[in-house]
Amino acid sequence: MKRPGKLSVIAVHAGLAAAVAITLYPVAMVIKKSIEPGKNFALSASPIPHAVTLDHFRELLSTRASSGELLFLRNALNSAVVAVAATVIGLALATSAAYALSRFRFRGRDVSLGSFVVVQMFPATLLLMPLYVLLNRLGLLGSLFGLVLVYATTAIPFCVWTLKGYFDSLPVAIEDAARIDGASAWGVFYRIALPLARPGLAVTALFSFMTAWNEFILASVFMTDERAYTLPVLLNSAVGEHAADWGLFAAGALLTSVPVMALFYALQRHLVGGITAGGVKG
Amino acid sequence: MKQLGPYALAAAAALVIALGSFAAYRNRTFSEAEVARAEAAAEAAARGQKAGPAVIAAAVVLAPKKSARYPFLSHRDAIIGGRTVSLGGPGSPAIHKRLYDAANHCDDHGAFSELSGDSGRVIAAIPTDRGTAVAITQPPSPPEPLPWAILGGLLAIGAVVAYCGITVGGAARTIGLAVGASGLAAPAYIWSGAIPAAAILVIAVAVAALDARGSLRRAARALHEGRIAYAFLSPTLAAMVVIVCVPFVVGLGLGFFDHHRGEWTFVGLDNFAHILSGGGHSLADPLNFWFTVAVTLAWTAVNVILHVTLGVALALVLRKPWLKLRGTFRVLLILPWAIPSYITALIWHGMFQSEYGAINQILATFGLDRVAWFSSWTAAFTANVATNTWLGFPFMMVVALGALQSIPRDLYEAAATDGASAWQKFCHITLPSLRPALGPAVVLGAIWTFNMFNVIYLVSDGQPGGSTNILVTEAYRWAFERGERYGMAAAYATLIFIILAGGTLGIGWLRKRRAR
């Protein structure tokens, strides 16, 4: 392919740099706010702080719940437990369903496939009240396990779609060969298909984890005790109705986002292939 | 025995219905008997007679007297077993509290009797000229056991009838199945009337008819052939049904009720009529449903167009082979996706603040006027769109990058040899290859944007005057900010679902028609 002129190369690089600058600006503002003294959001547009302090982090990490526990750490632990558990359960369910939908032709296949799309259209507000009643009946209201159940299932439709696409893109020949050699249906799935689908699984796990880690509305309605809060609920209370403390919020936002960003960075290689493998095939 | 499969199917369904009608019958007779006993005990107490067996407490509670020390408290005495006792106070038994409450309730609302579902206790209270007679009873014996002998006997007789019919074959098979499976209709009729009995009869006849048409055998074969697939699929489907589908159906049902201070009243289609007629607001009023629909559609369209355009453009640039620092650019551009959307929304809300928000500071440095971002519809809508575009373009970019990877480079080289211009290459090679991957992504992105609660709620919060609300935030406000009108919220959510499902079906239909 021919190389364009020097001027347009520079223009493209400058354009991309501008796009990156716009992308990074809000992030830079959060970093700035988290290390700048004061509670207000911003007194200048410059992303460089006028003074540096670690007070916000110190305050965030040392705030105690009424029970004497360190609130942020406790809530971070809640978030981590919920997100990991929801990912494991959700992924296990989504993988087997996606495999069935990709590899087998059976009655009701199209209906189940369609229903996974339709489910995406249920507004969370519609599910909020009935779920509240359901969890209340099961005695799971305010418990982390209830949250895990809800997150795992609500993440399933999207996971099934991406994973089904990924399985579709894998060659069937290896699995057929294994079957001829006498492998059971479970053996083919567990020993052949799963290892091959690892990149797709990684990306799907990432989405599952993010959905649970970031969810805010359901958690804020279901969780009433501050010790059972997840991070989004805690963070929102920092900029609640009365006294917004943006410094505290920024510090918390940073600490909350870092794990997800690290996961994203680690998996970004697989991201491009993992999400579109199925789409390309239609 | 294997031939009895259709019978087993019908019998299992009939058994469930029969057990249900027995439970209903048992609860009804039990509560009637217990309430009658409690009322008799209260009357006995009113006449000063001794309480019968299994009566926990029977008393005549005398009229309340104001407490001397605390005028807001009132004090009641009761005659229990001929002695006058003071109700309440330190060390008094817990049952006295129940007597006190029941007497108060009776004074306010008249005679009543109430069965507590868990323990089977009944509290009955009747006003008398001496005071309020109250009795609390405990059931003397456990409820009737399930009539297994009757159920089992009828099932066995039914099995024999069905087996005979099946052995003879032909029409006898169908008749035998229908008759054999309807046996349980008789006790169900005795216990709970015509409805459960009719249900059992319908099931029996339906199973017999399906069996005659061979549908059952075909379904069984399909189930058997697809058993591995079903085994893989069923745990997920079960979880989805319990956590998503059941609440969804309940949510749809709530749309037909009105909720006011904890009371649900059935109002039929009133909620929908109220919403669809605009609720008495003019079309230009933000509280009119159709105004919100228009805002939501504009919101979705603008966002999806921006996401796709930006995403594809950046993906195309990122694919240029001569690009320096490609990996770095890509990672940094995906970053917004990695940040929780509620954090993003709150940050942008802060940056759009009119006094010291960063955006206005930047505008000021360029010599532009400050904008009061949340006081005009256009500005507030722009702020929402800017936030959501920042949030949403990386997804489309990643999808486009993936789709571009699958285009062989030879295609471009061949086109170049044929003298195609860059624009022609884009229209005839790039776009067609993007479509299969972008199509589903656009549908998914449109659904997400349509229901994007966080950005609207946290950035503009519907300002000014609720005019930037979209349908989801409007539904949320009905539920949580306008006096817990859950019924209205559910009706709103139902309409959202109908619009989205209709839209997606319409797009699918159009695509199919064009493909043909």
Detail the topology: elements first, then pairings.
The complex is a heterodimer of chains A (282) and B (516).
Chain A: H1 6-35, H2 55-62, H3 71-103, H4 109-119, H5 124-137, H6 144-169, H7 173-180, H8 185-196, H9 198-214, H10 217-222, H11 231-238, H12 246-281
Chain B: H1 5-46, E1 55-61, E2 65-66, E3 74-75, E4 77-80, E5 83-86, H2 94-109, E6 112-115, E7 122-127, E8 132-137, H3 148-168, H4 171-181, H5 185-192, H6 194-213, H7 215-225, H8 227-254, E9 257-260, E10 263-266, H9 270-276, H10 289-318, H11 326-338, H12 341-351, H13 358-365, H14 377-405, H15 409-417, H16 422-450, H17 453-460, H18 471-480, H19 486-515
Antiparallel strand pairs in B: 1-4, 1-8, 2-3, 4-5, 6-7, 7-8, 9-10
Account of the 3D structure:
The complex is a heterodimer of chains A (282) and B (516). Chain A is mainly α. Helices cover 74% and strands 0% of the residues of chain A. Chain A contains 12 helices and no strands. With 516 residues, chain B is α+β, with helices and mostly antiparallel strands. Chain B has 19 helices and 10 strands. In chain B, the strands form 3 sheets. Chain B has a 6-stranded antiparallel β-sheet. In chain B, strands 2-3 form a two-stranded antiparallel sheet. A two-stranded antiparallel ribbon of chain B has the order 9-10. The radius of gyration of chain B is 35 Å and the shape is flat. Classes of the chains: A mainly alpha (282), B alpha+beta (516).
Main attributes?
heterodimer, A: 282 residues, mainly alpha, 12 helices, globular, disordered C terminus, B: 516 residues, alpha+beta, 6-stranded antiparallel beta sheet, two-stranded antiparallel sheet, 19 helices, 66% helix, flat
